[in-house]
Amino acid sequence: MKKSLFMAAAMVATMAVSVVFSSCSKDDDVVTPDIVGVWEHYDTSGHYDQSKGEFYKIVLTFNADNTGTKQTEESYMVIKDHLSTWKDSYNFTYTQKGDRLEMKMTMTHFAGSDPVVREEMEIGKCRVEGSKLYVTDGLYPDGSKRETIFTRK
């Protein structure tokens, strides 16, 4: 009788330990999306007037070695019938942990003929659904967040 009682208690204790040490962490549920490749965001909404040729475009290239480039291009009317376009390109390194994406960019601008180098960090969350990459980045002064949708090229 004592042996049966001891065995039953040992089985209950084993089951309790199994339940206590089983993982139920939210980290296990977060999948790190595969973002390697080229992604494009093209915007003609908001203050951009597509009928006048205005737009804003971002192309992100993520390489498998955690490096990449961010190319931006914007075209808008400065004065009537005069379309102004500018382009920038930045190199970056990135890290991912689950849905967290950090991009560290090094930017070089010129003040006259002198180069000015600065680093900038962009931190956000990302998810991939089919051919779409959704990036939600930083808080804005009003507390809002911005989600940018990219399409795989």
Rg from alpha-carbon coordinates: 25 Å
Query: Any idea how many domains?
Result: 1
Average of the residue pLDDT scores: 75
Biggest sheet details: 8 strands, antiparallel, barrel
Give the low-pLDDT segments: 16-27
* Side-by-side strand order of the widest sheet: 1-2-3-4-5-6-7-8
CATH topology: Lipocalin
- Given helix and strand content, the structural type is mainly beta
Oligomeric state of the chains in view: single chain
Strands, total number: 8
CATH class type: Mainly Beta
Q: Helix and strand succession?
A: HEEEEEEEE
Amino-to-carboxy terminus distance: 71 Å
Q: What overall geometry do the principal axes of the alpha carbons give? A: globular
Contiguous helical run count: 1
CATH architecture assignment: Beta Barrel
Describe what is shown at a glance:
The protein has 153 residues and is mostly beta strands.
List its traits:
153 residues; mainly beta; eight-stranded antiparallel β-barrel; 8 strands; 58% strand
Q: What features would you describe in this structure?
A:
The protein has 153 residues and is mainly beta. It has one domain (37-152): Lipocalin (Beta Barrel), CATH 2.40.128. The chain contains one helix and eight strands, in the order αββββββββ. The chain has an eight-stranded antiparallel barrel with strand order 1-2-3-4-5-6-7-8. Strand 7 (132-139) and strand 8 form a beta hairpin. It starts with a helix and ends with a strand. The relative contact order is 0.15. The model is unreliable at 16-27 (pLDDT under 50).
